[in-house]
Amino acid sequence: MMKASRPVGIVGYGSYVPRYRLPAQEVSQLWTDGNSPVPVREKSVNGIDEDVATMSIEAARNALKRSGVEPQDIGAVWVGSESHPYAVKPTSTIVAEAIGATPYTQAADWQFACKAGTEAFQASIGFVAGGMTRYAMAIGMDAAQGRPGDALEYTAGAGGAAFLVGAADEAIAEVEASLSFVTDTPDFWRRQYEKFPEHAGRFTGEPAYFHHVTSAASKLMSEMGLTSKDFDYFVCHQPNAKFPLKAGEELGFSRDQMKAGMLVNDIGNTYAGSCMIGLTAIMDIAKPGERILVTSFGSGAGSDAFSIRMLRASEPRGAISTRAYVERRKVIDYAMYTRLKGYYKLN
Amino acid sequence: MEVARYWRTTRQRYQLVGEVCPNCSGKIFPPRDVCPTCEKEAKTPFAFSGVGEVYSYSTVYQAAAGYEKATPYTVAMIRLAEGPLVSAQLTDIDDKDVAIGMPVEMVTRVLREDGDRGMLVYGYKFRPVMV
Ligand SMILES: [Zn+2]
Fold first, then answer.
1. Does A94 sit within 8 Å of B131, measured CB to CB?
2. How far apart are CA A114 and CA A303, in angstroms?
3. What is the tens place of the pLDDT at every residue in A244-269?
4. Which end of chain A is more exposed for a tag (fewer CB within 10 A), N or C?
5. Among candidates A118, A124, A79, which has minimal Cα distance to A97?
6. How far apart are CA A20 and CA A178, in angstroms?
7. What separation in Å is there between the alpha carbon of B16 and the centre of ligand 1?
8. Searching chain A, which residue's CA lies closest to the CA of residue B125?
9. What is the pLDDT of residues A43-78, one digit of tens each?
């Protein structure tokens, strides 16, 4: 278990979800004549002018509004994603510049498939607790790609969240402890210069997702001397609608504990943003004293688990709620989706 | 876009940073170092709130080079809350829903890319206010 030597927490947070939604039925209709069952209801799709940098900027601006912190006091801007806009050239400098944190700040891009955001968050806790900086911004954001017709195309969504980490005495919620659990498990990957990822089919379930999520979450709870009954909310990585419910059930969580953070049917799998945006939806409604267990999953593979306790109710102060982003939706068909994804060759 | 020019104008494009006139307090965007009202020197940076309303607009069907992927799209003159008029693309809105007087807010988006190998150009657009 990792516990900061000084109490650290979330002083601000914000999310972002683009406006467009592709119903999973559209994908099923095109590739299987509607015969394939759908793993989610619909997924979010980024507009033609949006990428991980622009979405991170908006989430970070929301986090700043909630915190009231001056951007010049931020000593690290870290963006975790598997869809950074450039292969070489940091996303984090674009975000740091846009939110006004430059030039005296750390900036870095993080990678670990879908847990790139939570590892940036975990490192932020240490960076702040160690006194290296007063505030650190950790972002998990993706505009995920699925090969046309592949199982991932039904779910690969766009969106994520930003967390501004600072001292617990000025925080909305304290991070009580965290734990990281990793093994070398090749369940999903994308080679250099390839546009779409590959996955190991059914192997992505038991040995990859379930093993890591439940191991990290149960070990953190037992080391803290807690059980699922001590938590008001549980949120974990959401690759589809079934996996998180099954993992939660195995860990002893009820549907009620999982409901607030479950966004996958509305926005799809937002990869590095998935459990982080679920956490923002919970923090939008959680009451002081309530406790949240968060567990990410990144292929390759690993999980980060966090126990978070609300210190006060969060005030929007002009920030846009996660619910408002989820409810802002324009449904598109597969042809428009193809256009937004840039699959048509124009010249 | 030339890299050096892109870099010099980063703050105005990403953050809507203009200038304020030390003489008459007029707000200036884009920055031009001289106040258009009193013609005195004005070099003090000023960050605009990003809130404004649509002053006029036009929908583009035949795009300029580099913007083909987004057609049709709407370009508008935005009256910023602090006074200046700025021209920008609207986003996250169907062209038929645009109206004069509509409240809008600034967002940072990809304006265009210089082909598959070139730089990504980020800057401001405006969308209907969400809060
Ligand atoms: Zn003047």
1. no
2. 9
3. 999 999 999 999 999 999 999 999 99
4. C
5. A79
6. 34
7. 19
8. A49
9. 999 999 999 999 999 999 999 999 999 999 999 999
Q: Tell me, yes or no, if A346 comes closer than 8 A to chain B by beta carbon.
A: yes
Question: Scanning every residue of chain A, which has its alpha carbon at the shortest distance from the alpha carbon of B70?
Answer: A48
Which residues make up the environment of ion ligand 1, defined by Cβ < 5 Å? B 21, 23-24, 26, 35, 37-38
- Residues of A labelled as active-site residues: 82, 114, 237
pLDDT tens per residue across span A289-319: 999 999 999 999 999 999 999 999 999 999 9
Residues of A in contact with B91 (CB under 8 A): 47, 49
Among A19, A46, A49, most B C-beta atoms within 10 A, so best to mutate, is: A49
For residue B90, list chain A residues with Cβ-Cβ distance below 8 A: none
Please indicate whether residue A25 or residue A188 has the higher confidence score (pLDDT): A25
ipTM entry: 0.96
Could you state, in order of their start, the residue ranges of all structural domains in chain B? 3-128
Q: Is A151's pLDDT higher than 70?
A: yes
In the numeric block, the tokens 């109490």 are attached to: A7
- pLDDT band (50, 70, 90) for residue B58: very high
pLDDT at residue number B1: 62
Whether A124 contacts A242, CB under 8 Å: no
Nearest chain B Cα distance for residue A74, angstroms = 17
Under the banding of pLDDT at 50, 70 and 90, the label for residue A191 is confident
**A328 in B contact zone (CB under 8 Å):** yes
Burial degree of A296 (CB within 10 A; 0-12, 13-18, 19+): buried
Domains in chain A: boundaries:
8-173+321-339, 175-310
Domains A8-173+321-339 and A175-310 share a fold: yes
Mean pLDDT of A156-167: 98
Residue A285: burial class (beta carbons within 10 Å; 0-12, 13-18, 19+): middle
Residues 6+ apart with CB under 8 A from A190: A82, A196, A197, A198
Closest chain B CA to residue A339: B69
Going from the Cα of A295 to the center of ligand 1, the distance in angstroms, rounded, reads 55
CATH for A8-173+321-339 (3.30.230.70, 3.40.50.800, 3.40.47.10, 1.10.10.10): 3.40.47.10
